[in-house]
Amino acid sequence: MTLEVLSGNRAQSEAVRLARVQVVAAYPITPQTTIVEAIADHVAQGRLAAEFVRVESEHSALQVCVSAAALGARTYTATSSQGLLLMHELLHWASGARAPVVMGVVNRAVAPPWSAGADHTDSLAQRDTGWIQFYAETNQEVLDTVLEAYRLSEDRAVRLPAMVCEDAFYLSHTVEPVEVPTAEAVDAFLPARVGRGILVPGVPSRLGSFTGPEDYVRFRREEAAAMARVVPTLRVVEEEFCRSFGRTLGGPVVPYRLEGATTALVTIGTASTTARGVVDELRRQGRAIGLLKIRLLRPFPEAEVRAALEGVDRIGVLDRAWTFGPTGAVAAEVRGALYGAPRRPLVTSFLAGIGGRDVTPGLVRRAVERLDVGSADDGPVWMDLEPLPEEVVRG
Amino acid sequence: MAKLTLPPEEWVRSGHSACPGCAPALALRFLLKGLGPRTIVSIPACCWTVIATPYPTTALGVAMLDTPIESTGASISGLRAAADALGLSDLNVVGVAGDGGTADIGLQSLSGMLERRTNAIYLMYDNEAYMNTGVQRSGATPWHAWTTTTPVGPRARGKAEPKKDIMGIVLAHRPVYAATVNPSFPEDFLAKVEKARDLVGPRFFQAITPCPPGWRYDSSETVEVGSLATETGLFPLYEVEEGRLRITRRYGRLKPVREYLQKQGRFGHLTDPEIDAIQSRVTARWEELLRSERTSAEGRAQPPATDQAPTAAR
What is the dihedral of CA B99, B103, B109, B113, to 10 degrees? Predict the structure, then answer.
């Protein structure tokens, strides 16, 4: 193990090298591009023995991965924003074909208008495509989660593709110290993927056939059952991860100072760090507040969320995306998970950090204050913005 | 009794669900006869999705991967990469797609696969319209042909535009090998497949594949309609290997295109002047092809490449 100063993107590419990925499909888009650039260099310098396929679109990038995975290769690609949206059709093909593709997603705002800033709209819009979705808070988590994602995705109980999401620039282009494990340790944790292709050359077989309704629904239910095995499988994988590397990953959700809390914040991605600082500050002032960071958004860990937030009266969910629903997307998931709770808390949806705006400690403090006067009828609260002019509101 | 010149093994099995007289079924039959069982076929949404029969059966004696309609070029790049990474270098990686899935919506990934020199074979079966969805016009539909989206009426005469030149597009990428094939001429078809099989790099076939329900002729006449496509010069058979063009079925005198057109209901509305106009285009194209063959023998079939034409393949 060595301690290196790495960006989130560099952490992705180091994990890909350590995972001995066999087929990489590459297409550039800001701010993802430095991931595939670094992998190209790994291949060119002989540090990674992979087929590096330079495709002509993100749609083709994911098709390359799905087809290569059908023959049994370990595959990787990475994208952002528009690229992920272009992949949408293939996202369904990957999960439906049970192709354990792992993909780095650098969360970036969706156009129009153009913005390269951090925003979760791109991957939240893909939450119904049958992919496992992780959201990272630190560059260490990025590296560790990519390794974990391969183990999880390739597990026979799961066989579903996974996205490892990181916030644009806050992680992708910001460096911090990252423990990089040795190749031997990773080889022991993540053995080569061999003999796992669904299609076998020389054997009459077909992947993706057309079906009648009875078979179609059976395939969907099998996929749902595999999704339901993600959280228990994750637990086993993380125990092994801890034994192999001496670090914990934290499970699907990471509670922080929720003991005795009556108020809680819920976050994904880098806003978690800021919110944790505010929780510490408010706890010092005597407020019973805690934080729940969600690492695994798909499948949504309902039971874990419900258990972690038991006894909390007021919950504020920070969404870094506006997804045109009654609340932010993560807030809707949290509300859904808590609807059947014996004591139903008030859940307020905050939209914060959209398009790369900073989620500051001040913003988080103001969200907590707003939480105190929240009601069940509240729509999403757009944080730290001037009110819209009257003529815009009227339309 | 004539000697059987085709390999007897069948990799397209009886029990497939093609329409009677389906030439796309013949095209894949002949392609696989030439390639054999160490082959994996990537097929997008097209007639062959259905012909191969529903889950859990398959009409193919080889492995088949389904993809969305526009993906074939990318899919065979992925299969090739995996085959090479996994030490399956003897595997024939093949994409088979319709004309819409190739010349229209799949053109980008086809161009990508040709440009990155994917070591794979791509066959476009050209039934000249979106047939699986019920005969809608594609870029490959010929001039004046009736389809459900290019109807005939007082203000419309079928498709208003000429057929897209897919071979021209493919040849601009300088593939290792490209050829036109016709299931009505199986020996010519097989000879080209066997030649392509042993080359390394991107290889492309355009197969003319008559479609009885789409072209509106009796299903017993597929081979005859297909033969006329070539004998009239409308679909000449040739191959281009490393820039050298060679016509593989030569005719001193072409049959009139009227014979081909009159057999098909999709051209039933054509007037004599329209048939004459088609004839003059076909004649001009045939002469152009003869010229291309001559100049290609002199090494100037194509303009010089922008940089050195790569022979290495991936």
Answer: 90
CB B142 within 8 A of CB B162: yes
Question: CA–CA separation, A103 vs A241, rounded Å?
Answer: 20
pLDDT in tens, B145-186: 999 999 999 999 999 999 999 999 999 999 999 999 999 999
Q: In whole angstroms, what is the distance from residue A97 CA to residue A116 CA? A: 32
Provide residues of A within 8 Å CB-CB of chain B: 22-23, 25, 49-51, 53-57, 59-61, 63-73, 75, 89-90, 93, 197, 199-212, 215
Distance separating alpha carbons of residues B61 and B36, to the nearest angstrom: 9
Strand, helix or coil for residue A111 = coil
Inter-chain contact B82–A69, Cβ cutoff 8 Å? yes
Q: How many residues does chain A have?
A: 395
* A64, A200, A206 member nearest B58 (Cβ): A206
Residue A222 to chain B, least CA–CA distance (Å): 15
Please give the sequence-ordered ranges of beta strands (E in DSSP) within chain A, or none if there are none: 2-7, 23-26, 51-54, 75-79, 102-107, 132-135, 162-167, 175-180, 205-207, 253-256, 263-267, 289-294, 296-298, 314-319, 346-351, 381-382
For chain A, where do the domains classified as CATH 3.40.50.920 start and end? 253-388
Q: What confidence category does residue A196 fall into, taking pLDDT thresholds of 50, 70 and 90?
A: confident
Domain ranges of chain B: 23-297
Q: Which residues of A touch B73 (CB under 8 A)?
A: 60
Q: Which residue of A lies nearest to B107 if distances are taken between CA atoms?
A: A56
Reported residue count of chain B is: 314
CATH of segment(s) B23-297 = 3.40.50.970
Of A321, A268, A8, the C-alpha closest to A135 is A268
Angle at B293 between CA B289 and CA B299, to 5 degrees: 135
The pLDDT score that the predictor gives to residue A386 is 84
Q: Do A207 and B66 touch (CB under 8 A)?
A: yes
Q: Does B244 have pLDDT greater than 80?
A: yes
Interchain CB distance below 8 Å, A71 and B77: no
* From-to residues of CATH 3.40.50.970 in chain A: 2-181+210-245
**Angle of CA points B260, B261, B262, to nearest 5°:** 95
The domain made up of A253-388 has a fold known as Rossmann fold (3.40.50)
Q: Which of A116-120, A150-154, A378-382 has the lowest mean pLDDT?
A: A378-382
Name the CATH superfamily for A2-181+210-245.
Thiamin diphosphate (ThDP)-binding fold, Pyr/PP domains (3.40.50.970)
- The pTM (predicted TM-score) of the whole model is 0.96
Q: Name the phi and psi angles at A145, rounded to 5.
A: -70, -35
Return the amino acid letter for B81: A
Strand partners, A317: A266, A349
